[in-house]
Amino acid sequence: MPRRSVNQPATPQDHQEVTFQLELEDTGILRLTWPRGSRIQEADAQRAMDRVNEICGEARHPMIVDMATTADVTRGARSVFAKPCQASSIALWGSSPVDRVIANFFIGIMKPPCPTRFFTSETEALLWLKEQ
Questions:
Q1: 40: which residues sit within 8 A by CB, 6+ positions away?
Q2: How far is residue 24 from each of residues 21, 42, 82, 108, measured CA to CA in Å?
Q3: Residue 35: phi, psi to the nearest 5?
Q4: How far from 28 is each of 47, 84, 95, 115, 126, CA to CA, in Å?
Q5: Whole-number pLDDT of residue 60
Q6: 79-83, long-range: CB within 8 Å, 24+ apart, which pairs?
Q7: Cα 62 to Cα 113: distance, rounded to the nearest angstrom
Q8: Higher per-residue confidence, 8 vs 94
Q9: Domains of the chain: which residue ranges?
Q10: pLDDT tens digits for 99-122?
Q11: What would the mean pLDDT of 5-21 be, rounded to a whole number?
Q12: CATH number among 3.40.30.10, 3.40.970.30, 3.40.50.1980, 3.30.70.20, domain 4-131
């Protein structure tokens, strides 16, 4: 399967531009990476999910989200992430206590649209995605 990659800036007018990286790896796993210290707002989340759907087309793929040291995810962004998209399962991969709090809040309160878990190990996250 060819590797496709998209780097997209999200440019809502009320905050600094956040650039994410999204690629469909040869293994069939989507990889969404947010920059360190980013504050993800609704427009950022919507642009990322639109790109997920664009890259996947009709196919569904498991997705790993590198959210290590993400500073904040707004309520609007969490609402966007709670909507169905072409991700068949989502592994949230982070390293800090803030990452864990953000992920646990999302999983527990927002009710993600597909199987979703938080991991501090990329290897464990990828193994879980392959089992789904």
A1: 18, 34, 70, 72, 73, 74, 77
A2: 10, 23, 21, 27
A3: -65, 150
A4: 21, 19, 24, 17, 11
A5: 97
A6: 79/42, 79/110, 80/42, 80/45, 80/46, 80/49, 81/45, 81/49, 81/106, 81/110, 81/112, 82/106, 82/110, 82/111, 82/112, 82/113, 83/49, 83/113
A7: 13
A8: 94
A9: 4-131
A10: 888 888 888 888 888 999 999 999
A11: 62
A12: 3.40.970.30
CA dist 71 and 25 (Å) reads 26
CA atoms within 13 A on the CB side of 110: 25
Closest by CA to 73, choosing from 106, 95, 50, 97, is 106
Q: What is this structure's pTM?
A: 0.83
Length of the chain: 132
Residue range 33-46, pLDDT digits in tens: 999 888 999 999 99
Strand partners, 117: 91
Q: Strand, coil or helix: what is 118?
A: strand
How far is it, in rounded angstroms, from Cα 8 to Cα 47? 8
Going by the DSSP 8-state scheme, the letter that residue 130 receives in this structure is H
Question: Strands 30-33, 61-66: parallel, antiparallel or unpaired by DSSP?
Answer: parallel
